[in-house]
Amino acid sequence: MIRTFNLSGVIITSFLVMTSIAAADERYTPIQNEMVSKECGACHMAFQPQMLPKRSWEMIMDRLSDHFGEDASLDHETSAEIRSYLVANAADGSWWSGKFMRGVKDHMTPLRITEMPYWVREHNEEVPARAWKDPKVKSKANCLACHAQANRGNYDDD
Amino acid sequence: MNFLQKFKCLRFGVAALLLGISTGVTTSAYANSQLSIIEGYATESKQHDQAFKAFSTERGRLLFSVPHATGKPKTPSCTSCHTKSPLNVGITRAGKEIAPMAISKTPDRYSTVKKVEKWFRRNCKSVLGRTCTSLEKGDFLTFMMSQ
Questions:
Q1: How close A69 comes to chain B (CA, Å)?
Q2: pTM to 2 decimal places
Q3: Deepest in the core among A82, B4, B40, B71, taking most CB within 10 A?
């Protein structure tokens, strides 16, 4: 009887430990499409598509000629390949929506990862305002300024 | 000179020759495609203007350096991102480094027509608010090849 109790205690404890490790895990599948890495990565770190919903990537790819104030237009063939990769790997790209979908309302189509509720919460809690003003940071889109391995999908260093 | 010395001498000569050939080949591989891109713009320029003679390093330098302010507000000039000298590493608005524009620093630049055209299309629109003419493109490349 006591033995059974202990065993279930161990199981419960290890379950709790595992979930807390999972919650601290900020790893994303690195981009596995060369065209996406090359073209998106020409001006900024190529962001992992798991950080925006499908509808956001669609809208971004529809508006490349005015991409946050830059002309980022691509030929049709290239943009079609990039679009399909981004959509297939989006935050809501599989049957199970990733954590980046938390707090995203159905009517919202965020175009910046930095507007995603999950991103905002993670950074508001931990990043002081002065850090964003550091000239080495330059932009909130510059993940690599703080996350040295962000381009490999590893944001654990927070 | 004994046999061993002769052999060393010969070996050095062959190595130097091979080195010369290999560097010659790699440089000219880029140089050929770079020159043919510029020639393409020269042909277009002649079609637009019969009086066209040659591209100008000086006009290219001006195009690169002066503030145009006819495009997007945050990029009035090429130098907004590429810095004042083409020899320097630039930085995009999103904080990513841009390899120097000068051919002496980034020898494989301007070697594929598709990539050259993509960046002229984007950046002429961002900086000038319009497409660039073939004369401007040729001048720009001629300036960068001189750097």
A1: 7
A2: 0.77
A3: A82
